[in-house]
Automatic annotation (TrEMBL):
Its EC number is 2.1.3.3. Belongs to the aspartate/ornithine carbamoyltransferase superfamily. Residues 3-141 form the Aspartate/ornithine carbamoyltransferase carbamoyl-P binding domain. InterPro entries: Asp/Orn_carbamoyltranf_P-bd, Asp/Orn_carbamoylTrfase, Asp/Orn_carbamoylTrfase_sf, Asp_carbamoyltransf_Asp/Orn-bd, Orn/put_carbamltrans. Residues 148-299 form the Aspartate/ornithine carbamoyltransferase Asp/Orn-binding domain. The keyword Transferase applies. This is Ornithine carbamoyltransferase. NCBIfam families: orni_carb_tr, PRK00779.1, PRK14805.1. The keyword Transferase applies. Keywords: Transferase. It comes from Bowmanella denitrificans.
């Protein structure tokens, strides 16, 4: 029976730990997985522009011996031509998996309903699971044990913060999301994270007070305006400026590492001093996108 990855919320702790272990193995011993996707084809549908997601999937699939077909929904004039359910069903006639980077989570849900092959969420308005797996792979490389992680996400409550909350809750980590007032995480996501945390012993905190980040080893931020948000930066800059990730905030919280999913806007949500400094994990996170995604593909496309 096929398994999709729309959000990690319905995956078990054992499954996530297995993915993290596989991601580490593919990173450390790439030659062992050179033919893991031999003969497999992956259709990649992109409604949104991308650097890291597109390149990491394309090169990663190639390194596993598979083939990726890139479909630019906008430039290829695919957007709006047919129902997402029909697109998913048709792509599944040829491809062994569908990777989709879309504006609406509902597009993924519709594709998964009709596609007879796994559908993988490469980003939507609600979740960014591939990024979260790469982030926790990075944390695991630093700490050795993700359950010992104390991570504060600081900024806009968005798809990245949602996936960090849910995955962290399953893994038993300490995840704190700190946002300006009016930009909090959706209540439904927070409730789901608290429910998952009850099973794992995770600590979940949502706050508008930066003091809530004290004691965290990792401070994480993202762009203040998500892709597609047309709000003028001038309208929110004053509200977000106190939440900038900078050396002063790192010192105040006692944090050792700075994280960002990128693209990063230097001197806005994060300073160049941190991006380029020894505390930066940004490039490690970016590299780990490929290894995390390779683990997902191997897990979903190869027989167990």
């Amino acid at each position: 029976m096929k398994k999709d990855l729309l959000t990690f919320a319905d995956w078990s702790k054992a499954e996530l730990l297995s993915l993290l272990k596989l991601a580490q193995q593919t990173k450390q011993n790439p030659a062992d997985y050179r033919k893991a996707l031999d003969g497999k084809a992956v259709a990649a549908l992109f409604e949104k522009p991308s650097l890291r997601t597109r390149v990491s999937f394309d090169i990663g699939i190639n390194k596993l011996g598979g083939h990726m077909v890139y479909l630019d929904s906008q430039a290829g004039k695919l957007a709006g031509r047919e129902d997402a359910r029909d697109m998913g069903a048709n792509l599944a006639c040829w491809a062994d998996a569908i990777v989709a980077r879309v504006y609406s989570h509902n597009t993924l849900v519709q594709m998964a309903e009709t596609a007879k092959v796994p559908v993988i969420n490469a980003l939507c308005d609600l979740y960014h699971p591939c990024q979260a797996l790469a982030d926790f792979l990075t944390v695991q490389e630093v700490l050795g044990d993700v359950s010992q992680c104390r991570l504060a996400y600081i900024g806009d409550g968005n798809n990245v913060s949602n996936s960090l909350l849910l995955m962290g809750a399953i893994l038993g980590a300490d995840i704190r999301v700190i946002t300006p007032k009016g930009h909090e995480v959706k209540g439904q996501i927070l409730d789901q994270a608290h429910s998952l945390a009850q099973q794992s012993g995770a600590k979940i905190v949502a706050s508008t007070d930066l003091d809530a980040a004290r004691g965290c080893q990792f401070l994480y931020t993202d762009t203040w305006l998500s892709m597609g948000d047309t709000t003028p930066l001038a309208e929110i800059k004053d509200k977000f400026q106190p939440f900038q990730l900078n050396r002063q905030l790192m010192d105040k919280c006692g944090a050792d590492y700075a994280m960002h999913c990128q693209p990063a806007h230097r001197e806005l949500e994060i300073t160049s001093e941190l991006i380029d400094g020894e505390c930066s994990l940004l490039l490690q996170q970016a590299e780990n996108r490929m290894h995390a995604q390779n683990a997902i593909l191997i897990s979903l496309l190869t027989a167990h």
